Amino acid sequence: MTFTEFYQSLLQLAKSYDKKTQLKIEYDSDNDIIKIFGEKIHSIAKAKNGLNDVIELAYTTAEHHPYWNLLYNCSQISKTILDRWDDNLTKDELEDIKWSIKELKHSSEKLQENKKEN
To answer: Which of 61, 75, 100, 114 is most exposed, with minimal Cβ within 10 Å?
Structure first.
């Protein structure tokens, strides 16, 4: 059975639950990824879920990749913003965001310097 065939079977299964619960299914055929969301899903929860994958990548790549610091700081800013979406950012959170922005600037300048050297 191919992954596409599995996806088609999954759609049939999901269809059998139509009257019991609402499901949203997303399929990324290029990467063989299927995401299933329940009826409580909303855009912020969906964004947080996707960001968790980015954060995991940032943590597991450590400092071995030249873009690590960019990814890490962007994801930290995004996480803070999504966590506080319906609230005000605290003074400490704003300071953390400013610090991350400085790190982004420093990292991008370092990448630019390395590019000029090569």
So the answer is: 114
